Amino acid sequence: MVTGATSLKVDPDELVVTCPFSVIVDTREQAPFRFTGIDDSETGKPLAISLVTDVALTSGDYSISGMESLVSIERKSPGDFRGSITADRDRFEREMERLAKLEYAAVVIEADWKELLEPAQHSRVSPTAIARTIQSWSIRYGVHFFPMPGRRFAEVWTFRLLSMFWRQKQAALKTNGIE
């Protein structure tokens, strides 16, 4: 036994910060993000993020509970994105039209520009077609495209986009005297 040692009682709630909003994960999302292992950007403490998994979103794969008509993020793997701009182009353009009606919408791709623009095996889509589609749809629909260096970056980026949207909405409400 160590003499002079004191036992510290730590409140478990102080070890984790609870996210002030719930993230909706569309029921049709085939490879959903879990949003674990993300730290609070202000305190650096681990963030407990509540997920709502029983909602079918009108557009996209992720949103904020209560703000589904305002914000949505569409997640795409590299192969899925290539398919969405070729074989499934008409369906995906309809998705872009729905996303364009929101206050903020983005497509987060689980591949960085280098990977996305390298000719892929078993794909006939050219790097030029990929780049021009992203440019064209960004302008036409006002949807933001974020190629990320892998799935984990895409997951964290998706959460940070939702978090920033929520924070800015809260600040606007406070500025307008609504709390």
What descriptors fit this protein?
single chain; 179 residues; alpha/beta; Rossmann fold; three-stranded parallel β-sheet; 5 helices; 36% helix
Structure description:
The chain is α/β, with parallel strands linked by helices and 179 residues long. It has one domain: Rossmann fold (3-Layer(aba) Sandwich), CATH 3.40.50.10130. It contains 5 helices and 6 strands. It has a 3-stranded mixed sheet, with helices on one face. It starts with 16 loop residues before the first strand and ends with a helix.
List the helices and strands and how they pair.
Blueprint: E1 17-26, E2 47-55, E3 62-64, E4 71-76, H1 78-84, H2 89-100, E5 104-109, H3 113-117, H4 127-141, E6 144-147, H5 151-175
Parallel strand pairs: 1-2, 4-5, 5-6
Antiparallel strand pairs: 1-3
